[in-house]
Amino acid sequence: MSRRKQLYEGKAKVLFEGPEPGTLVQYFKDDATAFNNKKKGVITGKGVLNNRISEYLMMRLEEIGVPTHFVRRLNMREQLVREVEIVPIEVVIRNVAAGSFSQRFGVPEGQPLPRSVVEYYYKNDQLGDPMVSEEHITAFGWATTHDLDDIMAMALRINDFLSGLFLGVGIKLIDFKVEFGRLWNENDEMRIVLADEISPDCCRLWDIKTNEKMDKDRFRRDLGKVEEAYQEVARRLGILPESGPRDLKGPNIMQ
Ligand code: TMP
Ligand code: ASP
Predict the structure, then answer these.
(1) Distance (Å, whole) CA 226 – CA 213
(2) Fewest CB atoms within 10 A around its CB: which of 141, 156, 170, 171?
(3) Which ligand 2 atom is at minimum distance from the Cα of 38?
(4) Which CATH number is 4-83+225-245's, of 3.30.200.20, 3.30.300.20, 3.90.226.10, 3.40.50.12780?
């Protein structure tokens, strides 16, 4: 993890200079934070699991034509990604009321929403990631209306695909957060790609039968068995076989 030049350290990941120009190495830590850094902890093994889960989900999304920054996994905690300019917006997609949505609108957690709802938050820790509208995003120049059209279309496509994928392994995708970045090709043409990570750190995942939480809410709300929940997500996706993490097989489809 040392020797390489460190470019950025976030709450759950570190970015290093990559082996070729235009690439970065994304290192997944075990550190966990919640409520804008007010609660801090360590979830042993989280980095390894999130590296693996995010790799798997980004690869599946690439297969259906969603462009991502992901190139390949390098080892247990690191993956090679394309260097992108992060759009400073956290895009949250909700299928079922939970978390801040339930608090803001007084809707009980677990109530299905009539349709998927997309929300934008300005990525700024000092301000506590305030919720913003398209108007704010375009007025401040964080993204253009064209960028936002792409982002919204991709976010909904990601939601449809991941909802089905998780449902197939007995998990309800309640809500999740994604981030996007700008990637330029050799002709200086820009396209928006999915960046950051998709893992139980940034999704709400509930067991389809028991509604048991299988995500970072276990840490946020001190529910215990946090590591076990992340492991169970990986196991159901078929990427944590008994024989060890290197052994790949397909998802365990529930009947
Ligand atoms: P929220 O209900 O707290 O607004 O969270 C909505 C979803 O976004 C949930 O799946 C957790 C995820 N999320 C993050 O990944 N990072 C954050 O900083 C926040 C606030 C939420
Ligand atoms: N991402 C955290 C959360 O989900 C917030 C933080 O990292 O401070 O609550």
Answers:
(1) 9
(2) 141
(3) 8
(4) 3.30.200.20
Is the minimum distance from the CB of 34 to ligand 2 under 6 angstroms? yes
**Residue 163 CA, ligand 1 centroid: distance in Å:** 17
User: Nearest C-alpha to atom 14 of ligand 1 is from which residue?
Assistant: 202
Distance CA 237, CA 165 (A): 9
Ligand 2 near 75 CB (within 6 A)? no
Query: Residue 79 is inside which H or E element, if any?
Result: strand 78-82
197 Cβ inside 6 Å of ligand 1: no
What is the model's pTM? 0.94
**Residue 155: HSE in the Cβ half-sphere, 13 Å Cα cutoff:** 25
